Amino acid sequence: MEIVAYKPIYAKVFKDLNIAWLEKYFVVEPIDEEVLSHPEQYIIDKGGKVFFAMMDGEPVGCFAFMKEQESNEMELTKMAVSEHHQGKKIGNQLLQFAFEEAKRMGWKQLILYSNTRLEPAIHLYKKYGFVEIDLGTAIYKRANIKMEKKLS
Q1: Is the pTM value of this prediction over 0.70?
Q2: 94, 104, 111, 129: which sits with the fewest CB atoms below 10 Å from its CB?
Q3: E strands along 8-144, which residues?
Q4: Is the pLDDT of residue 74 over 80?
């Protein structure tokens, strides 16, 4: 498996990977539809990044860094692994890569929003050092937990 940066040819798979888990567990909110349909405009052009886990030349997982404009925090978001490739530690590898990339870019911490219903994801985040913090105002209706990881 290798991890590669966003290219426009991956825009559809970025949306498809995320829509799949959103529809399985929640509903696709208007903000999801907007961001996933226009990742360059909402993520990359605003200082964020999108990465893909590739197996045999095909994208099978992804995540993004989105810069929170008001707080200047970097959010780890839009993390997804295709259902067919779950259980292969791809999420672990994506997270490890995310931490290395965030440190390389000089970020001191990452935040994420999730839902406690996604128990495997919450377990993974805690395993890698994320701790729960005050939820504050989340842009996603489904978000009922906010987590943070200090990077050293």
Answers
A1: yes
A2: 104
A3: 49-55, 58-67, 74-81, 109-114, 131-133
A4: yes
